[in-house]
Amino acid sequence: MRVIIPGALAGLCLTITSIFLIHSREIVMGIIPILFVSIAVIAMVYERWSLKRQIRKLPFKGDEIEVRVSDESFDLSSSLAKTSLKWGVFTKVVHFEDGILLFESPRAYFWMPYSGLRAGNIQQLEELLRKHIPEQKFVERRVAPNDR
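Above: the chain's sequence. Below: its structure in token form.
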């Protein structure tokens, strides 16, 4: 959403500029912004389609993943793989109303929804996270106008 609104405004400005240039008989200069907007729209549509396609091909899609945490490590296992990570791998944790994001890097993270955890384990997990990961962030839910 953060990219769509500024992109739409930029596209609208370029389209208005194009109409003005074409109307003032600067046809070639008027077509360039229209081409730019068209390419940007096609790129956004392609990126969305490509991401959906990649997600459909993930071997873990729909697989149940078991997470075990201890004072020493963060362990994941599924029907396809098992891995054990030391706490030092994680750089940051972000707490949301409905779950936790554990970051290894800006583009590598684990999403842990609270709905997938047992009630007593949430508090234990948060204690381990505070103990082992220094960078903690808490994101509050923003109320949309139609949620009031």
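Helices lie at 4-23, 27-57, 119-132.
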